[in-house]
Amino acid sequence: MKLISSVTILTLLLLTLPSCESAETPVEPSNPVELTDAGSSIADGLSEAGSDAGVQSPESPSITEPTPAGQPEERATPKPSLNLNLDLYEDNLTAWTKTRGSLDPEEEVVFYWHGHIFLDKDADPDGPAVSDFPGPIMRFEGFNIARFVPVAGGVRMISREIALYKNLQGEIIDCWYNGVLGTDSPAAVPVVHVLNDPVNFTVSGGNPNVMGDKVVWTLEVMLAYPNPLSPATYPLFSASNTYESAEMFNFYSNLADINDPEQDSIPVTISWSRVGQLLPWMRAGKTQGKLIYHTYGEKILDGFDGLPQHLQDYVMEHAPEYSHAPDYDTSPNTTSWRYFKQLIDSGEYDSSCQ
User: By CB atoms within 10 Å of each CB, which of 83, 173, 269, 308 scores lowest?
Assistant: First the structure.
């Protein structure tokens, strides 16, 4: 059985809202100050402090030694800068592409995230007041691997992604007890991991917020549309006639990196939060409650080989094609709800679990 995703949009949404269903995954619906500059500043300061104290390096001329007549003082050559104006479309697209992806269409860009999933249940409005909030019910870890190809009207993101559900001890799980949700018929249910291919859409610019020498790119994706899994036909796997979710992304980068002409892809850190319905594989039907995802991560500059070893091992054993971005731009995008419907309709869904 092919594994799937519950968080397609986490990448889809990472940029510009595509025509697919969910941003579940950190979809499309983050840079430090250069150490060389900092190191030079510190060294210069120490040199000046030593000179003030009467200490001089034998290799260095005295700071009081005059410059030879007629010879101009040497000055550091300013580092080249793109001087991008993030308010202009073309500059914004360049900066956002360097942040979310790469200006090199052949480079495979990997974003990795991990965090926790919480269960949020409304308090009984007529019952006694409550003052506690339960801890997480599971962990969540995954990555998206993509290429970014220029097209008319922007840049096309061509990607696939995996995300794994784990117990609170950090172990990947394939069977989960849904009694924690308060279901009417608690049982052990098979886990369907996120395995989405393709996750493609067009990038047309980002929403930058400049804070000093940093840039925070924000993306909010609010979704509501007809649920592919209608409660009337799929009562165990559907919470509502309407699919609903909300996803919030932050990408953190440095202005210096964005304006560096020598970098096609720059260092980025991310945060991703999501509020959504109980997952189809949880077999909770219309059980009241929502899932809250709280994750963080980064762009892995070494690509797939830079991911945690256990994640690489899982991919190579279960879905080796996910070690690379797709070669072709195909459609439609895969989403958890549609894929789960296909599993049921085709008879491929196995409800047994041990």
Answer: 83
pTM of the prediction?
0.79
What is the distance in angstroms between the CA of the first residue and the CA of the last residue of the chain?
16
Instruction: Return the number of other C-beta atoms located less than 10 Å from residue 81's C-beta.
Output: 12
Tell me the CA distances in angstroms from 289 to 6, 118, 188, 284, one per residue in order. 16, 10, 19, 10
DSSP character at residue 114 = E
The radius of gyration computed from the CA coordinates of the chain, to the nearest angstrom, equals: 25
The whole-angstrom distance between residue 290's C-alpha and the CA centroid of its chain comes to 21
d(C-alpha 232, C-alpha 212), whole Å: 53
Q: Helix, strand or coil for residue 240?
A: coil
Take residue 259 and report the two structure tokens written for it: 């304006």
Spatial distance between the Cα atoms of 163 and 189, rounded to a whole number of angstroms:
18
* Pairing relationship of beta strands 242-254 and 269-277 according to DSSP bridges: antiparallel
Task: For residues 121 and 104, give the distance between their C-alpha atoms in angstroms, rounded to a whole number.
Answer: 45
